[in-house]
Write the structure tokens for this entry.
Amino acid sequence: MVLLMKSILAVAVLATGLGFYGLLDRAVGQESTTSDPFAVEGAVEPPAPTTAHVTAAQEAASTSSTQAASGAVPAPTSPRLQAFRRITAALESQTIMEFNETPLSEVIDYVKTARDIPILLDKKALDAIGMGSDTPVTVSLAGISLRSSLAHLLGQLGLDYVITNEVLVITSKEAARSCLDPRVYQTDGLQIPAEKLIEIITSMVAPDTWEETGGTGKITSLGDSTSALVISQTEQIHDQIADLLEKLREADVTTAPSGAED
């Protein structure tokens, strides 16, 4: 009995001592390691957000809200423009044409399948010049673009092509002249006054197809400050214009503005 009482007393004394030291630790600012049962050794508390953090977050939220409210997202390219770009890209790709007395319709089907672009024969225009889709074609070309291949192929038949309504159309030269495609040409870097450049183009490229000479082609300057021309012409003539402008750039042609003093 006496032994049991001594054991209880010893435990009570020990507990009191431990409690005392715990209180003492807190009194001198030393946190007890057993004060937080969920504490993780080595864990670092995240710093409190500063004014800069709050401001940056507010600006980001404001920008996001403004963009959402105004619909400020890039406009998707129109399907018509996508189709035009796909066809023009195919025209620039190299191709091989080896045909001997092959019907025109079969040649066109080959190109359509090989380049995966929509192509149609303008049968009404072909009938008007007495040419059928079964007209035999003989051609042997390799290592050049589809654009140049078509120019050779259709040239020997007196035909042309246009890109209209998302389709490459094989038609007569007469019908092609009435199907004009307006395009914008950037002329920066040429250092040629707009009036002089227009004179060069209209005199060097298909002179009889412009309005001034009784044709249907149109060319307009957007002003020297914008360095651009708007030209409405057929597909083939656009090719010639682009080629001429490229050659002028390669030659680094410079013409002094009219009225400039020497």
About this structure: Residues 13-75, 256-262 have pLDDT under 50 and may be disordered. The chain has nine helices and eight strands. The two ends are 130 Å apart (CA to CA). The beta strands are 94-103, 119-121, 136-145, 159-164, 167-172, 181-186, 218-221, 228-233.
